[in-house]
Amino acid sequence: MAVPETVLTNRDLEAIVETSDEWISTRTGIKERRIAGERESTASLGLKAARKALGVANMFPTEIDLIIVATSTPENIFPSTASLIQNSLGATRAGAFDLSAACSGFVYAVEMATQSIKAGGIRSALVIGAETMTRVLDWQDRSTCILFGDGAGAVVLKASDIEGGVLSAVLRSDGSGGDLLCIPTVGSGDLRNSEFGMNGHAPGKMYMNGSEVFKFATRVIGESINQALDKAGIDIEDVSLIVPHQANLRIIQAAARSLKVEPELFMSNVERYGNTSAASIPIALCEAIAQDRVKPGDYLAFVGFGGGLTWAAMVVQWVDTRKAESIRVLAPQRRQVSYFLASLRANVLKATRTLSDLTRRIRPRRGRMLRLRDKVNQLDQ
Q1: What CATH number should be reported for the domain holding residue 273?
Q2: pTM surpassing 0.85?
Q3: What are the phi and psi torsion angles at 68 (to 5°)?
């Protein structure tokens, strides 16, 4: 995982918008969130998380076959944020693309990578959830600006003969609720009066109907987890930990009641990071591992929900494939060298393209100068 250093507390927000620490805490469970600095972006946060994930997996960038970045706040419309990270990693053998499924995106992306591995098309994938949500907020809208934060999390998936891993997934969508939680682009301006329009919401800024999204989330979490458990062939009593999208503590508490389990079964860190959209599940997973709440053989459930409207649930049996591999000598140092070489390669290629473009511009001018010189010589004669 990777989060910005800058912390924005509820007390800080009191100076920005009409709200209070008590109001935010009691309604959302959020105490603080991280805010990306000027030199931080979705790609830079995703890159940091990706490098850490490769370190944990004891793998090199050239061993990755596919990179998927789940994000609602990409660097560009294109090129994809995944391609930028692929270049910075030096993952020269990997395909790369972004996936847009809002706060459900990470589960969607893990399932896409899983199916690619199971189909035999690839053997390894790097899945990243990365967001800079604070850059698409209206800081005068207290219904949204108090909720969101920035961050990234990443996992590596590998083909393996060891039993376990991703056992099941349920992916769902209901586009009829698309205008309840949205960030319209500039291209949506011509569509506001059509069936696809976002009801005149400002392009580039988030809009959310909080009460409707709350009702939607509390309904689908329990349903989708039970569906994923049925597909995996296990019961809720077998689950050691549920890692939900970190949107609101009250939603998590409602989900626990719906599933008739103790709230402690759910991993929650929403109080420190707020809603980081597609990054929230992998960040929470990383912290759960750090807290020793995840052990080999454990059954875990992931569940995400958000704009689209989309929702997704997944059941995983945690395994550690590193135990079946030989120790790689000086692997961390070799990875650092590979990152340096990737940066050097990118800079050399950029310089080469710049020089080539400059040469193309100079050549026509040189030709014009030669023709002008010939004409002057003819006049002298």
Answers
A1: 3.40.47.10
A2: yes
A3: -120, 130
